[in-house]
Amino acid sequence: MKRREFIKQSIAMGAALSTSRARVYAAPEDYTGRFFVTLQADGAWDVSSFCDPKTNQNGEPEINTWSRTQGIQTAGNINYAPFGNNAAFFQKYYADTLVINGIDAQTNSHSTGVLHNWSGRNSAGYPSLTALYAAINAPNLPLAYVNFGGYAETSRLIRYTRLNDINSLIGVLTPNTLAWDRDSNYRDPDMLSLVMQRQQERLARMRQRSDALPRKQYAMDAYYQARASASGLEDFATVIPDSNSLEGRVQVNNDVNSSLRQQIQILMLAFSSGVACSGDLVLGGFDTHADHDAMHSPLLAHMTDSIDYFWTYAEALGIADRITLLVASDFSRTPNYNSSNGKDHWPIGSALLMEMGASWGNRVVGATDGGQNALQINPTSLAVESSQSSTVIYPKHLHKALRNYLGIDNSALANPFPFNNTEDIAFFS
């Protein structure tokens, strides 16, 4: 049975996805490799109230209000803060999670922190890890690299696809139907096919012109390739639920109206349809300079609840065992409150890596002291120590290790973006 026929005959699997009304479809995929996803907690999260918990110290400014009455909690080998419903997340997923603490972003600037943490370098020019992964593994997929916001530098290795407006997306994927009536067919199919064929032929002629400037030539090449692979997008359109079955937005706090669950839903369907292999999810609002606890707690709860939805939905689609998820932020927040009961910028942060059944799960690498200052570790033994061979963890260490783990470190596309003089830290040992 052909893939498109299979998709059209798919029916709802009836998976219980918390409060979701989404229908879950399974479809044979063109791409059979692994998927790589980042979740960008935009604005700088407070890791002292998450995965690198800190309690108040006698004679020092208060670090966290929760530690007035509660202590640090543990799930497996992972410590976490009793804040923002963290317990539900860590108790369920500690075995599938690697926590990396003490990552020094070397900046308090959002723009530099985002650049550093998601490219591995604190100056412009390097692609996101998701872009590099897609460019190496599946550059010809119609939506190889999906981005919902946040850092998405491609360094011209590949084009990202921004999926934010579902109705507009349906219009692009199925140009012969109406967004509000997917069964419509308001152009003669044969005539439409002929028009599209002539358009592609015209694009091919324009690509051959020798007088085009490099930037125009690059845009023309990208457009030609996108049109050439557009036929596979009809399969993706088939599995996108109607508006009544799409995940809705969630009012998380007074400032944040989140689309994270819908982002996850669409990305998982793109993966299961075989049209994408990497993606960036984004949740904003973590820049809590005022009223920190009231704003940050529901954000962390919504984030971890959405990660639970991520894995539950992936499991229902039969692709959970093929996904690697990286969760991180710009940097972190100060180990004290300001005069507005907020927390300001702090360069030392954390990251989470997740895989179902990972041999490297249930572990913590890296550490900070009681004032949330990064401690040096031995790159091989991972022991906290201060010696000639030890180092503080920087984003480049994580990116270098992930490139190796994902099998893209020796690619010709990765070679122009090296991490020279960077120790190999055994995150995955």
Summarize the structure.
The chain has 429 residues and is an alpha/beta fold. It contains 11 helices and 14 strands.
Characterize the structure shown.
By secondary structure, the chain is of the alpha/beta class. The protein has one domain: Alkaline Phosphatase, subunit A (3-Layer(aba) Sandwich). The protein is 31% helix and 14% strand. The strands form four sheets. It has an eight-stranded mixed β-sheet with strand order 6-5-9-1-10-13-4-14, sandwiched between helices. It has a two-stranded antiparallel ribbon with strand order 2-3. The protein has a two-stranded antiparallel ribbon with strand order 7-8. A hairpin with a 5-residue loop joins β7 and β8. It is globular, with a radius of gyration of 23 Å. 43% of the residues are buried. The N terminus is likely disordered.
